[in-house]
Amino acid sequence: MPETIELTLEGSSTSVAIGTTGFELFQDKKVVAQRVNGELKDLAHALSAGDRVEVVLIDSPDGLNILRHSTAHVLAQAVQKINPDARLGIGPPITDGFYYDFDVAEPFTPESLKALEKEMDRIIRSGQRFVRRVVSDAEAANELAIEPNKLELISLKSSENLAEGAAEVGSGELTIYDNLDPSSGEVVWKDLCRGPHLPNTRMIGNGYSLTRLAAAYWRGNEANKQLQRIYGTAWPSKEELKAHLERLEEAAKRDHRRLGAELDLFSFPEEIGSGLPVFHPKGGIIRKVMEDYSRAQHEKAGYEFVYSPHITKSNLFETSGHLAWYAEGMFPPMKLDEEVDADGVVRKVGQDYYLKPMNCPFHILIYKSQARSYRDLPLRMFEFGSVYRYEKSGVVHGLTRVRGMTQDDAHLFVTQEDMESELTSVLNFVLDLLRDYGLTDFYLELSTRDPENEKFVGSDAIWEAATATLEKVATDSGLQLVPDPGGAAFYGPKISVQARDAIGRTWQMSTIQLDFNLPERFDIEYAASDGTKKRPVMIHRALFGSIERFFGVLTEHYAGHFPPWLAPVQVIGIPVADEFAAYLSEIISQLKDKGVRATIDLSDDRMQKKIRNHTKDKVPFQLIAGGDDRDAGSVSFRYRDGTQVNGVSVAEAIEKIVAAIANKEQV
Questions:
Q1: 98, 333, 334, 427 — which has fewest CB within 10 A?
Q2: Does CATH place domain 61-247 in 3.30.70.260?
Q3: Would you please indicate which residues are annotated as catalytic (active-site) residues?
Q4: Other CB atoms closer than 10 Å to residue 245's CB: what's the count?
C-alpha cells in the first residue's frame, strides 16, 4: 500500500501522508477549519485521496461563523455551569454574532450577562478541545435525555420543519461535539451539533461580548414555549470587537424607530396593531415627496399608472399559486357574500376573500382585459399598491418589517426578444433613481432556484433560460454580482440591488424578477408580428421594496438629517427680536412662493432656544435676521452642524436655498 495520497490543496496537486488532517496541513494559527470537496470540516478531519482542500481563515465569512458558533457553545456551557437546571434550545451563528436560547425558570438580567462572561472567560482560558463524535439517533437521545428540545430536534432530523434547528441536525448522520479537558481528556460538556468548530476554546480569545437579552418562541413558532435568548458577538481580536461595538452605537443613534418619535414622523399605535404604522404630518410630507418624485420619473420612463383593490376572492390567488405556496404569509380569509334565509338555510354559498399580499395577479388581469399585440409591448404597469402580509410578531421591526405596506410595484410585459434589453433598461432606471435618493454604493445579488425544494414551479428549461438572462444583465452592469442559491421566489429567479448606507450596512433595496410561470398560469398572450399567438415574459420590479421600509432605511442613512429636498421643513426663520419678524416674514413668503417649505418661529422662546430647538429638529436652513440684516437687506445662514454665514443678501439666500433643493444637495 502507498504511504502517501494525492490531493488538491488550494488548486494545486500535492502528496501527503495517509491519515493527514488539517492540523498537519495548515500551520498558520489563523486557520480554523478546512473546506473539503466543498464541505466545511474540522481541522481534525482526516483527508482522503483525491480530496479538494481549501483553507478557512478565522477572518473569512466561514471562519467568522465558526468562531461565533463555538462562542455560542461556550455561552451555553457557562449558563449550565451557573444554572444546572437550564435546558438548552439552539445556538446558531447569525450576522455579526450569535445567540443561544434557554429554558430557564427565571429570566436573565443584565447582571446575569456579567457573571456569564466571567465564566466564559474561564472556559476560554482553559483551552477545552472541541471534538466531533458521530452518534446514532438512539445514542443521541440517550445522552441528551434531560434536554427535551434536543430530543425534539432529533425526532425532526431531515424534516423541512427544522427552521432554526438546522444548525444542529440535518440530513445524514447525527453528531455531538464534546468539550474535552486538555489535560485529562475528560468530557466537560457536550451539545448536539453539526459543526464544524474551532480546534479549542482558547482560539476564541477576548474579542467577544454578550450584547442583549430577548424572549423567543422555541423554533420561531408562536404556538411553542417562550424561551430566553442571549445574543452575543465575536471577532478575531479585541480591536475588531471594539470597532463593531462602535458601529452598533452609531447604528443605535440612527435607529429609525427612535428618530421617528423624536422628529414626529410616524408611530405604531397599539390600538391599530403590531406592524401597522401611521405617518404624522412631517413624515407624510417626506413620504409624499418620495412618492411624487418616483411617479414623475416613472412617467418619464414610459410607465402607465394602474390601481387595484386591497382584497380579492380566493380564486385569484389559487390561479397565481400564492395560496398553495405563500398561504402562511397571508392574513386569514374573510367569508363574505353568504345568503341565509329566515330558516337558516344557506341560499348562496359564501366565498373566501383575502387581503392581497402581492399586486401581480391584479396587473395580469388588467393585461388580460383586452387583446394585446406585439405593438403594445413592452407594457409597463406601475402602482403604489397597499399589500398585507402576516409577519410573526417576533420578526416585526419598526418600518423595515411591517404587516401593512405600500409597494412601488411595477410589472412589465415584454416579448422574449426584448427581454434582455428591457431588463437592462429596468436595472439602469432602478440604480439611477436610488442614486437620486442618496444611495450610491451598490452590489447585485442573483437569487436562483433550489432544485431540492418542491415549492419552486416551472420546468428546468424555463428556469435556466431566465437565470442565464438575468446573470448576463447583472454582469453587464459592471457591478459586483453575488450568488444567492435557493433564494428565488417560487415563480422565478431575481436580481436584488443591495445598497450600503452611510455607515456601511447592507440593505436589500430593489428587486427585479423574471417570470415565465405566471403568464402561463394565467394563459396570457399577444399577437406576434407573424400573426401567431405568443406568451409574453413578465418582469416584476419593486424599486423601494416598500415605501415604509425605504423610509426607514433613508432615515437611518441620513441619521434624520434629510437633504433639503426631502426635509419636511426646509427653512425656518428666526428673528433676533420681535421687531424683525415682519422683515423675516417677507423673506419667508418669497421662499414659499417658490415652493419652499418655509416657516417662521414667532414663539416667545429666546433666540438661542429657538436655534437649539430647530437644530434638534434637523431643519436644513435657519435664516436669522436682526437690525443689521434688515438695514442691509440680508440674513444670516445657520446650518445643522452649527456653522453660520452672516451678511448673505436676500436674493443670494433665496437662490442658494432653491438651488440646493432643485439639485438634491445635502447640506
A1: 334
A2: no
A3: 360, 389, 407, 409, 411, 494, 540
A4: 14
